[in-house]
């Protein structure tokens, strides 16, 4: 296997990884502690004194975690038995074996940034599951729901657009259908700006109608492989036998507004017959503040269905029907909340890799997926995407992401350097987006 570059880490003072570990992660932990404080009376009402004691215990564990981070203490193994505890602890041991530190301990500012962030969210989950009877509590639920409620106008505009499109879809010629597909792909891309872990848990809702901004945003798409997606799926549609399936898998990122944009894209894929099944992959535990869990997925569809806006509620009713009919399928897998890069999937989660191989196309949403696809390493800007995937090729895939981390491959020679010279934070603000494809052309 080719030599891969070093991992991004907090060792690089002033880097985005360093500032995330120094400032953003403690800010998120403080918000989590505050959320638990604010729910104290609810815990008392539900569970009496036991609930209050559990809240105190969770806060104490999280305060200890924050202190470990801020004083750059060594990582400690997970202790609470959970489905992934052993895998996590083996991985922590493995990371320690790679270190040249004199004490051989993984630390917050010296370990790979990807591991540091994943470990922090896994430790938050551990603090909650160590604190029954409040071990069911999603510390990020409120902010995810707030993002959905604050984006209502944009959601109504998108649902209205989709329903009007579906009513005339059979009258569209191939070019018109392609234009609509590209439009909904771009909406899904810019929906990825709504990331609560990026904003430190502060509100990041969508207040403007993104449909009206697509033309203005086009110059900010640095890599645009949408043509490959169209060519692949329209070809599947043309050559599909009557009883056979075309499966598109969407590996989800954020709940709230972004999830709505992904579901609208999923609806269009079925309505246009570009796909016969859409499979959604979410997280098994609350993750990176706003990542989608099965609860978020079901809750959001329920909210859309019960909207008093007719096109919005029609979308919700259709989506519920797709799930009942098996045309939409939601999957959980613990691998998505492990710290491993995706090239390790065939070894760590061979069942998931085998599942992904059944897809005709996999869409990976957002930054964390991109970081795991490319190993979150210090790649040169012009390194081919296929190379950075390091052997991870289960099926044709495309990453759809607004840039919020210091990693990007597959650019033209000099393009990244030019952007860096004119706009030093170009790759960490969410201003630019990509559709980056790997698969047969």
From TrEMBL:
GO aspect biological process, one term: methylation
Reactions catalysed according to its record: L-glutamyl-[protein] + S-adenosyl-L-methionine = [protein]-L-glutamate 5-O-methyl ester + S-adenosyl-L-homocysteine; beta-D-fructose 1-phosphate + H2O = D-fructose + phosphate; beta-D-fructose 6-phosphate = dihydroxyacetone + D-glyceraldehyde 3-phosphate
EC numbers on record: 2.1.1.-, 3.1.3.-
Keyword Methyltransferase attributed: yes
Keyword Lipid biosynthesis among UniProt keywords: no
InterPro entries: ARMT-1-like_metal-bd_sf (IPR036075), ARMT1 (IPR039763), ARMT1-like_metal-bd (IPR002791)
Highest taxon in the source lineage: Eukaryota
Record's keyword terms, sorted: Hydrolase, Manganese, Metal-binding, Methyltransferase, Nickel, S-adenosyl-L-methionine, Transferase
Alphabetized GO MF terms: enzyme binding; fructose 6-phosphate aldolase activity; fructose-1-phosphatase activity; metal ion binding; protein-glutamate O-methyltransferase activity
Domain (Damage-control phosphatase ARMT1-like metal-binding) ranges: 20-419
Named cofactor requirement(s): Mn(2+); Ni(2+)
Gene Ontology cellular component terms for the protein in this record: nucleus
Function: Metal-dependent phosphatase that shows phosphatase activity against several substrates, including fructose-1-phosphate and fructose-6-phosphate. Its preference for fructose-1-phosphate, a strong glycating agent that causes DNA damage rather than a canonical yeast metabolite, suggests a damage-control function in hexose phosphate metabolism. Has also been shown to have O-methyltransferase activity that methylates glutamate residues of target proteins to form gamma-glutamyl methyl ester residues. Possibly methylates PCNA, suggesting it is involved in the DNA damage response.
Assigned protein family: Belongs to the damage-control phosphatase family. Sugar phosphate phosphatase III subfamily.
Domain comment quoted from the record: Subfamily III proteins have a conserved RTxK motif about 40-50 residues from the C-terminus; the threonine may be replaced by serine or cysteine.
Protein's recorded name: Sugar phosphate phosphatase
Organism: Pan paniscus (Pygmy chimpanzee)
The organism's taxonomic lineage, starting at the top: Eukaryota, Metazoa, Chordata, Craniata, Vertebrata
């Amino acid at each position: 296997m080719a030599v891969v570059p070093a991992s991004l880490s907090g060792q690089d003072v002033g880097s985005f990884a360093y500032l995330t570990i120094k400032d953003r992660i403690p800010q998120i932990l403080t918000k989590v502690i505050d959320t638990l404080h604010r729910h104290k009376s609810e815990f008392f009402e539900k569970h009496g004194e036991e609930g209050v004691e559990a809240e105190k215990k969770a806060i104490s564990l999280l305060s200890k975690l924050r202190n470990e981070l801020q004083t750059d203490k060594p990582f400690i193994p997970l202790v609470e038995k959970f489905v992934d505890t052993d895998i996590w602890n083996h991985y922590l041991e493995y990371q320690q074996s790679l270190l040249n530190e004199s004490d051989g301990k993984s630390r917050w500012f010296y370990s790979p940034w990807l591991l540091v962030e994943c470990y922090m969210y896994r430790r938050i989950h551990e603090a909650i599951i160590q604190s029954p009877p409040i071990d069911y509590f999603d510390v990020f639920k409120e902010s995810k729901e707030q993002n959905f409620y604050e984006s209502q106008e944009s959601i109504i505009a998108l649902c209205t657009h989709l329903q009007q499109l579906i009513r005339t879809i059979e009258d569209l010629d191939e070019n018109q259908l392609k234009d609509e597909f590209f439009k909904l792909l771009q909406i899904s891309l810019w929906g990825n700006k709504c990331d609560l872990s990026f904003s430190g848990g502060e509100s990041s809702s969508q207040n403007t109608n993104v449909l009206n901004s697509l033309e203005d945003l086009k110059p900010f798409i640095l890599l645009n492989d949408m043509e490959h997606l169209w060519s692949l799926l329209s070809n599947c549609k043309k050559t599909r036998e009557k009883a056979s399936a075309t499966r598109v898998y969407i590996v989800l990122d954020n709940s709230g507004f972004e999830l709505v944009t992904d579901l609208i894209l999923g609806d269009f894929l079925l309505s246009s017959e570009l796909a016969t099944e859409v499979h959604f992959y979410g997280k098994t535990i609350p993750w990176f503040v706003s990542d989608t869990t099965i609860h978020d997925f079901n809750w959001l569809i329920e909210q859309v269905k019960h909207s008093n806006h007719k096109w919005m509620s029609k979308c919700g009713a259709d989506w519920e029907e797709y799930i009942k009919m098996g045309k939409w399928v939601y999957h959980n897998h613990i691998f998505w909340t492990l710290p491993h890069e995706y090239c390790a999937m065939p070894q760590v989660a061979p069942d998931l890799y085998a599942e992904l191989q059944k897809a005709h196309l996999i869409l990976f949403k957002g930054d964390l997926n991109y970081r795991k696809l490319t190993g979150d390493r210090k790649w040169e800007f012009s390194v081919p995407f296929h190379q950075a995937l390091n052997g991870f090729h289960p099926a044709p895939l495309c990453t759809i992401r607004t840039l919020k981390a210091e990693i990007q491959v597959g650019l033209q020679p000099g393009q990244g350097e030019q952007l860096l010279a004119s706009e030093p934070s170009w790759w960490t603000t969410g201003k630019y987006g990509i559709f980056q494809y790997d698969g047969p052309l």
